[in-house]
Design brief:
Elements: E1 2-6, H1 22-36, E2 40-44, E3 55-56, H2 70-87, E4 91-94, H3 99-102, E5 110-113, H4 121-129, E6 135-137, H5 140-145, E7 153-154, E8 167-168, E9 176-177, H6 179-184
Parallel strand pairs: 1-2, 1-4, 2-3, 4-5, 5-6, 6-7
Antiparallel strand pairs: 8-9
């Protein structure tokens, strides 16, 4: 299968050392994992990205701040959808906010993963986007907070715990933690406050 992956233009994939970029770190591992599973992958990103899969871009470097400027992201996304369609993608996995609005320009089917909230100003947008294409949440809590937004699936990040060595966490017990031990420990498990979702 030929899988196109559209990353936001704000941070390189993967993010540089010491840079915030949780979404971009996940995109890096996902694109690499698709390729290791035998799929052909084309990552639409920025020119300073170093993910070890074939990629394309129109922006030489990640734009950084201010994240979310529509004109920058729209130009990046439209060019990406055109390139992935010309490449012959069977499906496009989009991580941008504006990409779903451009998906009709693309011939392959599109699936959208939201790494942010399904609340506030984004709620109406995702309700509209979820009608013509599947929207994926990254946790049950995120999907629950989406209310009336039709979430097609919950797919947790496929983070490789070996990529994140154990270290002293900022938790209340100051024991060494890693991704896998934090997720499996009842004292370190995430909680949801009642009424947190709007």
């Amino acid at each position: 299968m030929r899988i196109g992956v559209v990353a936001p233009p704000w941070v390189a994939v993967p993010p540089g050392r010491g840079r915030y970029g949780g979404t971009e770190a996940v995109i890096d591992q996902l694109a690499h994992g698709f390729e290791q599973a035998g799929h052909e992958v084309m990552l639409w990103t920025t020119g300073d990205s170093t993910c070890p899969v074939p990629s394309g871009h129109i922006l030489a470097t990640a734009r950084g701040e201010p994240v979310g400027v529509a004109a920058v992201e729209l130009d990046h996304v439209i060019a990406g959808y055109e390139a992935l369609s010309a490449w012959g993608a069977d499906i496009v996995h989009d991580y941008t906010l504006t990409g779903p609005l451009c998906a009709e320009r693309s011939h392959p089917p599109v699936v959208v993963t939201n790494h942010g909230p399904f609340e506030g100003e984004l709620a109406a947008l995702y309700r509209r986007v979820a009608q013509p294409m599947p929207v994926v949440a990254i946790s049950q809590d995120q999907a629950r907070c989406g209310g009336l937004i039709p979430v097609a699936a919950v797919i947790h990040h496929g983070v490789d715990p070996d990529a994140y060595p154990a270290g002293l966490g900022a938790g209340d017990d100051q024991r060494p933690t890693s991704c896998s031990s934090a997720a499996s420990s009842p004292t370190r498990a995430p909680t949801t406050s009642p009424g947190r979702c709007a």
